[in-house]
Amino acid sequence: MSVKTILAPITAHTQAQSTLETAFLVARRFGSHVVGLHVRPAFKKQNLDVIMELAALSTSSPALREAFGSPVQLQDRDTLAAQELFERTCRYKDVRIANRPFQPSGISAAFKEIVGDGPEAIAEQARVFDLVVASQPKSDPGHILREILRSVLFHSGRPVLSVPALAPISVGDSVLIAWNRSALSARAAAIARRYFEHAKRVGVLTVRAEHGKGPTAQELVEYLSWHGIDATLIEAELGQRRLGDVILDQAAAFGADLLVMGAYSQSPFRESLTRGVTNYILSHAKISVLMTH
User: Domain 5-41+75-163 maps to which CATH number in 3.40.50.620, 2.30.40.10, 3.30.70.420, 3.20.20.140?
Assistant: First the structure.
């Protein structure tokens, strides 16, 4: 099974360009259709009251009309910017615009706007896509990028490819799977096999100090071999270091352009208290990270 549909949320954020470019990069591997999704927030009653007041004032005051714009302009400004970014990136990457499958199949894209609560609405839309590509929350003052990732991971049933601020030149050529024997890492490994089975190099990383019940990393290597994947076993020591640092250092040493791992073995709140590995990876990774929950 391959990746035929990809959802790429477009937020009012500087990393939106990287999100789209990476989505198209993955799409070219599989001949996928990419939907650039912009969520326009639904106005609550108090917000609507303010807009109506602005509308009344702007009608009578040219200065206010110029400063604030009309209510429609206030609602549509972010949507127009998102659509312009989407269409510009499609032209730059030579991607066809299409709303339905066509023959011969190949990479295509479409822009979609919906109204709703941002992260929750994105997670709901993601349920009918093979993969979600979203920005890593390294520079995220409003925490919107982190909330999108969490919402999709917990509420969509779909894997997330989190991508850095600068679009990579490759995704899935060299894959490192972080294995801790858990059901979460098993699900992530299955996703990696299904989505990136044509990788040139695959590594399975185990950190010796991690304690868990279940198959060893060597057994995962043997499992992958039944699917025609020749994976390399990598064993690392934790010592006095953070687990996230060990994983990222091993990914760099392996030359990985994709890290695969299970996400949030604890709740996001508990992770924030215990400085969990998922939050750390999301905040410090320099490569794309494929996560599933």
Answer: 3.40.50.620
